[in-house]
Design brief:
By secondary structure, the protein is of the alpha+beta class. Helices cover 23% and strands 21% of the residues.
């Protein structure tokens, strides 16, 4: 009985932590906001050319499901910027935290037409955006 109680006391915090981690991965950051327009074609790990608009987002971490983006950089050095959704933009279908595996969009967001991989020096801050051209 004591062994069972000890095992339960050890498992409960682990299960709670695992549940929280799964919830964070599946829900992602849902801070949606809308700034301004235009874009080319993002591809892993970057995105294509874009046209002028408001200043770029200061924090890449703000990209969330439902946001629309354009690329102010190049295919190799993408600089995504949030804009209002419209023609020639890409909508974020899914944000996958803690990974640089852009192929995960094929299974987790099959309607995605492109993806953006953010590779941080701290692996836990890596993420992939599954994008759909509008």
């Amino acid at each position: 009985m004591i062994v069972i109680l000890a095992v339960l006391l050890l498992l409960c915090p682990c299960l709670a932590l695992s549940g929280w981690a799964v919830w964070r991965v599946t829900n992602g950051d849902s801070t949606t906001s809308a700034p301004a327009p235009s874009l080319g074609a993002p591809v892993e790990p970057s995105a294509g050319p874009s046209s002028a608009g408001p200043s770029p987002s200061e924090d890449d971490e703000e990209f969330a499901t439902g946001d629309c983006v354009v690329n102010d950089g190049t295919d190799n050095e993408a600089e995504l910027r949030k804009v209002p959704c419209g023609p020639n933009t890409y909508q974020v279908l899914l944000r996958i935290p803690a990974t640089t595996d852009g192929d995960r969009c094929e299974t987790l967001a099959p309607q995605a037409t492109a993806n953006y991989v953010h590779d941080n020096t701290i692996d836990v801050l890596d993420y992939v955006l599954c994008l759909k051209e509008r």
